[in-house]
Amino acid sequence: MNDIMIRKRKWQFTIFLIIMIAATYASSIITDFNALHGITTFPAALYWIFSNMLISQETLTRLPSILDKLLETIFMSIAATTTAAVISMFLGLMGSTTTRVNRAFSSLARFTASISRNIPVVAWALILLLSFGQNSLTGYLALFVGSIGFLTRVFIETIDEASQSSVEALRATGATYFQIVNKAVIPQCLPLLISWILFMIETNIRSATLVGILTGTGIGYTFDLYYKSMNYNVVALVTFSIVITVIIIELLSNYIRKVIL
Amino acid sequence: MEVANIRRKRDGRITIKAGSKAEALMVSTLMILAVLTMIGFLLFDYSGLELKKAISETGNNLKTMFLEPALTHFSWGEAIYQVGITVGLAFLATVLGAVISIFLALFAATNLSNEWVSKVIRIFVAVIRAVPTVLWVLIFAIAAGLGSEAAIIGMLFHSIAYLVKAYSEVFEEVDEGTLEALRATGSNWWHIVMHGVIPSTLTYLMSWTFLRFEINFSVAVAMGAAAGAGGIGFELFMASGFYFDLREVGMITYAILVVAIILEIISTRLKNRYFPSQ
Q1: pTM flag (> 0.90)
Q2: Where is the ABC transmembrane type-1 domain (chain B) (predicted)?
Q3: Helices A186-215 and A121-132: crossing angle, nearest 10°?
């Protein structure tokens, strides 16, 4: 009996493996990916990076303008996240099964979140660029829409999980909807919600670079500018400044998480 | 007996909130974020923006996009082929990433490796993750040339960073007793991994890998648009940036949306099945 089971599992695994290899092969044909070429260029690429992307004395003179753009990007990500968090809080309360007003609103909230999450940030950036033009607000709005989708989903999950019993208890005492939300839902979920908000800020700083390249705002634009003019020393400086920013923000939010959770 | 520890406000009312460090930190975090947001809005560069016009224009654009989608520059077959390329990019980055990550994660898991090696891998992964994917792709594109190789290597980096973290956490949850039993039989490290660790965690590993595939799909769209990796993302970039063809943008957006929603439904099912607590 056991023997048959093991043999069956082995068969399943082999078939799965064959399908995976076939799919990998098909994908590499369709995307024109040559694994050998990829592997052989990899060391060359690394060597190139280490020999060309050096920060020289001269590039440091560009540092103030880079920091200026970096600051803009950080503010953009934070502003997009906090404003999206406020909207998502309402959508989350509407969408969660414990706190929803009625079924229709709940579906509406989930649907809105799903649409704004599943259309990639890139698409939003390109769509908004057409009418908002090349300024900070375009990048901000693209991040904002994407953040709403993600935050609403996790807020709904958090509220669903955390507050079932206390909401029931408060409802039994005859508390109003506002009192239930204010005294049971928010205090219980707040640490997790803040943790998600911090996560979103980290993610948004990284996506802001991408959005910046497309919409010509923030640090992404600076990167693109020097990248296209092949000034790789400055490109290295920009990359390093992004890395340091992301790591600092990650350490900060890890500290906050450790205390509040 | 008098209770000494009741704290009262100045007017004699009992304070009901104790006030801990965690609470103070939460409040100050939110306050700081709110202040930074306001400063951000003041500092933004609003050059060339006419808000009213922009909003109504966006409204019109969205209406054209979503209500009258059409393909003009390429056929349906071509569109499906381009979506296929994007899925292919995501798939390759995920599969190659998964294979590399399993090995790295084995060395990163604290119960299977020594502390020092595990720390080095974790720091390495954190640095990799700090560089946005698009920068990895563009930097590799200088050396390897624009195309699928640079895109896949760039996406691979972040996939590895994500999967190593997820896998090593899964490995760390393997029952210590199982490992000990295998060790007692004289199994070497490789035996323990092949017969104890991998079989008991396989379903979790596969779910995490699929979750990454879902992420990689949208990353692949982005790389097509921003780093010239081809696929539907590139078509989206061309349609909106060069042809200004809103109907086509709408159609492409729908195509992306359909794939993304299918992937999301599958991954939600997987999550509910294998990670019910999360």
Answers
A1: no
A2: 83-267
A3: 60
